[in-house]
Design goal:
There is one protein chain. The protein is an all-alpha fold. It has a single domain, classed as Growth Hormone, Chain: A, CATH 1.20.1250. The chain is 80% helix and 0% strand. It contains 17 helices and no strands.
Length: 400
């Protein structure tokens, strides 16, 4: 079925933001309910945290598959299939009666829903002129930043009113809305030339190896992977850390989490302005310095072990806010830069790019929170300093 109506210029960003941000909301909406989920399913806190780690594993696999499939079969059918799988898997999460079933459903949820993360950004590249891409990616990144601000608050309210299963029911409804809107309104953006280029690729693995040998691709893929790893440990540990360790309420935890990730919104706006004047490497260098400062402050605060709830919250939130500002700068910068040379295989390149990011995140899930943040921050700085591409990519006009 072809879309019955074409999207207006204002509707495009709204729909793209919905499909790109849905996986992000799915990570954060159930975080306030993790302790009560552990109690309801008779499981330990560490087991419930594994639902997040396995979700990230499914996220990584989705990144690897969605790009090549969309290059071959088109953006629209792959996105529709992914959203349908997401809705079914999210309903399975709501009906889960043990941790094993919940983990399996979370993997399928990520495999389906996270296709939008790859395809949405490829659509930006194919549908909009270069001069508009940077600003639109920054706007989408701002939406992704607001998602973890609002999603835990909404999840906390829904969990109190309807229980933790109600959170997944709400996510299933959001997925069904996205599926209906894509079905009715989103046209195919893959051009015949792009389809022909994808069809003439002899081997997918050969394409991946080519990308992984390309210094331009490797630089921005590793940079986004490391910078995301400076933030993901906070996502994974914060619910238990604040609610079990510091004994704050679910609503208070959601507010604390939201305030922390507001730094992403600040960083995304910094990128939008700085990108109009500086090349992407200069923007990334500034983000790396800021990220190191935040990680060093977190390390110092954890070593000091401040007493009291207020002091403990401040010792975590203030350094992580600084880290999140740097993340908000670095992520849209990397997303803009990485796909520019790979027009013929944009879906495959985008998928591998996000796979590297999520694979690094999944592999690091077992390390302690502060240690992982500091180590990933050093890795981000080393990539920015040592892994130079052969030609700089300027954001310039694109960020205006």
């Amino acid at each position: 079925m072809n879309p019955t109506t074409t999207l207006s210029r204002r509707a495009w960003p709204a729909l793209l933001m919905l499909v790109v941000c849905l996986p992000r909301v799915t990570i954060d909406a159930y975080l306030p309910a993790l302790p009560r989920m552990a109690d309801a399913l008779h499981a330990g806190d560490a087991q419930l945290q594994m639902t997040l780690t396995w979700y990230m594993a499914g996220y990584a696999l989705s990144m690897l598959a969605a790009g090549p499939l969309s290059d071959r079969y088109g953006r629209r059918p792959v996105l529709l299939g992914g959203l349908a799988l997401y809705v079914l898997a999210t309903l399975a999460c709501a009906l889960a009666d043990d941790v094993g079933m919940l983990i399996a459903a979370r993997v399928l949820q990520a495999l389906g829903g996270c296709s939008g993360t790859v395809i949405g950004r490829v659509i930006v590249r194919e549908r909009f002129a270069t001069a508009e891409q940077g600003a639109l990616l920054s706007r989408i990144s701002t939406g992704m930043a607001l998602s973890p601000v609002l999603a835990p608050l909404a999840g906390s309210v829904v969990a109190d009113a309807c229980g933790w299963r109600g959170v997944f029911a709400l996510l299933a409804a959001a997925g069904a809305l996205a599926l209906a809107l894509v079905w009715r309104h989103l046209p195919e953006t893959l051009r015949p030339a792009g389809a022909a280029a994808a069809a003439h690729e002899r081997r997918l693995v050969r394409t991946w190896l080519m990308l992984l040998r390309d210094r331009h691709f490797l630089r921005y893929s590793l940079a986004i992977g490391f910078v995301y790893c400076t933030y993901f440990p906070f996502i994974a540990a914060s619910s238990v850390l604040f609610q079990r360790g510091l004994h704050v309420s679910g609503h208070m935890y959601a507010a604390i989490f939201g305030v922390t990730v507001l730094g992403y919104v600040v960083g995304s706006n910094v990128f939008r302005r700085a990108g109009a004047r500086w090349p992407v490497d200069g923007v990334l260098a500034g983000a790396a310095c800021l990220n190191l400062c935040g990680a060093a402050c977190l390390w110092a605060a954890s070593a000091a072990a401040p007493a009291g709830v207020a002091a403990g919250v401040a010792a975590l939130v203030l350094p992580m806010f600084v880290v999140m500002v740097s993340v908000g700068i670095a992520i849209p910068a990397c997303q803009f830069a990485v796909l520019q040379p790979f027009a013929g295989i944009a879906g495959t390149a985008s998928g591998l790019f996000f796979f590297v990011q999520m694979a690094l995140t999944t592999a690091s899930g077992a390390l302690p929170f502060v240690l992982l943040t500091v180590g990933a921050s050093l890795g981000f700085a080393l990539v920015c300093a040592c892994l130079r591409p052969r030609a700089a990519v300027a954001v310039g006009q694109a960020a205006r």
